[in-house]
Write a structure and sequence with these properties.
CATH architecture of the largest domain: 3-Layer(aba) Sandwich
Number of strands: 13
Strand order of the largest sheet: 5-4-3-10-11-13-12
Helix content: 25-40%
Oligomer: single chain
Order of helices and strands: HHHHEEHEHEHEEEEEEHEHEE
Radius of gyration: 24 Å
Structural class: alpha/beta
CATH class of the largest domain: Alpha Beta
CATH topology of the largest domain: Rossmann fold
C-alpha cells in the first residue's frame, strides 16, 4: 500500500520513500505544511468528484526523491513532476474557492470545474472534444474546450468580477462572449436585469443558446464603439480572439453593426462590465462627451494596454475616470517581456454614491 500524506508522523523521510543510497533527510516545517495542504486538496477532490487523486503525495515523492544522477528516467520524471505541480496549483485554487468563494453554490461550481478538467484530459487523448458542458445545471455551448476552460477558471474560480459591494438591479455586460460573465452575475444576483452585448456573429450564436433559459436577460449582436454604422471586425473562430484591431491576432474580417456606449445607457446602471478588446478608449471618450458617466455606479473594466499598432493611453483613460468622479483600483500581471501586451483590470466606483 502506498503511503499517504497523513501517514507521515516523524520529521524524517520514511524509508519506503527513499531511493537506494539516499540519506535519512529531515522534513522541514514548510514541507509538512505543504503536505497538509495536499491532503486538503485530495479530500476536496474526492468530496466533489468521488475520485481519488494522489497529486500531493506524488509531488512530494518527486520533490524529495529526485532521480539519481545519470538516471534515464530523469527527463520523464521532471516533466511529469511539472504537470503534477500544475494540477496541484489548480486544485489549490479550487479548494480556496470552494471554501472561501463568494458564491453560495461554490461547491457545485468546483465540482463542475473539476469534471471539465477531467473531460479536457480525455479530449486530448481521443481528439473528440465536447461542444457543451453543464455549469450550475445550465448547458454551456462553446467552440473550443481549452478557451472555455480558461474563461471558466478566470470568471468563476478566480472570481475576476468579484468584490462588487452593491446588489445590482441593472447590469450592462459589454463583450459578453459566450455568456460566462452573465451566468456568473445571475448566479450571484438572480433578480438582476442584464443586457449583454457581443459583436462576433459566431460567438453571439453561442451566447444565444447559453442564456436562453435565463430570466430578465436580453442580448444584442453589436460592437460597442464611439459611433453608429458598420465597422470591420476581426475574429478567429475557436480561439476566442475578436477585436476591431486587425493586429490582435485574428484571421477573419467581417462587417458588424456598431453602437455608441452611451446608446446602451438609458437610465441608471448599477454595474457595467466591459471587455471590448481595445475599443474601450474610444467608447469611454464618447460616453464622457454624452454626459452619462454619472449614471454608472460600479464598473469592471478590462483595459488592453500596449495593443499592437495603438498608442499608449492608460494615463488618459484613468484621468477620465477621475474627472468623472470615480475612484478605482487596478490589477495586472507583468508581461514576460518589456512592452508586450498587458491586460489591466480596473474596478471603479462613484466617489460620492448617489
Amino acid at each position: 500500500m502506498n503511503p499517504r500524506p497523513s501517514d507521515y508522523k516523524s520529521d524524517a523521510l520514511p524509508a519506503e520513500l527513499r531511493q537506494p543510497g539516499q540519506p535519512h533527510t529531515p522534513v522541514s516545517k514548510d514541507t509538512k505544511a505543504s503536505f497538509k495542504r495536499g491532503v486538503q486538496i485530495e479530500r476536496l477532490t474526492h468530496a466533489v468528484t468521488g475520485c481519488n487523486f494522489h497529486y500531493a503525495t506524488f509531488k512530494f515523492v518527486l520533490q524529495r526523491n529526485p532521480p539519481l544522477p545519470g538516471s534515464r528516467h530523469k527527463p520523464m520524471l521532471n516533466g511529469l513532476a511539472t504537470r503534477v505541480a500544475d494540477h496541484v496549483e489548480t486544485l489549490s485554487d479550487v479548494l480556496h474557492f470552494a471554501t472561501h468563494g463568494s458564491q453560495g453554490r461554490r461547491r457545485e461550481i468546483a465540482r463542475d470545474f473539476l469534471k471539465m478538467r477531467f473531460l479536457l484530459g480525455v479530449a486530448k487523448k481521443n481528439q473528440k472534444p465536447p461542444d457543451h458542458l453543464s455549469l450550475l445545471g445550465i448547458p454551456i455551448h462553446f467552440s473550443d474546450l481549452g478557451t472555455f476552460k480558461y474563461v471558466f477558471e478566470e470568471v468563476f474560480i478566480h472570481e475576476c468580477y468579484g468584490g462588487c459591494p452593491i446588489t445590482p438591479a441593472t447590469i450592462l455586460d459589454c463583450g459578453s462572449n459566450i455568456g460566462m460573465s452573465i451566468v456568473y452575475f445571475k448566479s450571484l444576483w438572480p433578480h438582476a436585469r442584464i443586457t449583454g452585448v457581443e459583436a462576433s456573429p459566431g460567438t453571439f450564436a453561442l451566447l444565444q443558446e447559453n442564456v436562453a433559459g435565463l430570466k430578465d436577460v436580453r442580448i444584442l449582436n453589436k460592437a460597442v464603439s464611439d459611433r453608429e454604422g458598420s465597422i470591420p471586425f476581426y475574429t478567429s473562430p475557436g480561439l476566442g480572439v475578436s477585436s476591431t484591431n486587425p493586429l490582435r491576432g485574428a484571421s477573419e474580417e467581417v462587417l458588424v453593426e456598431a453602437m455608441p456606449l452611451s446608446r446602451l445607457i438609458e437610465g441608471e446602471i448599477d454595474l457595467l462590465k466591459i471587455d471590448i478588446e481595445g475599443s474601450e478608449i474610444a467608447a469611454f471618450e464618447e460616453l464622457e462627451a454624452s454626459g452619462k458617466m454619472p449614471l454608472i455606479r460600479f464598473m469592471f473594466i478590462e483595459y488592453h494596454h500596449h495593443l499592437p499598432g495603438e498608442s499608449h493611453a492608460l494615463s488618459t483613460f484613468l484621468s477620465r475616470l477621475e474627472r468623472c468622479g470615480f475612484n478605482y483600483e487596478t490589477a495586472a500581471a507583468l508581461p514576460k517581456r518589456v512592452g508586450n501586451f498587458q491586460d489591466i483590470v480596473i474596478r471603479a466606483w462613484q466617489a460620492q454614491p448617489h
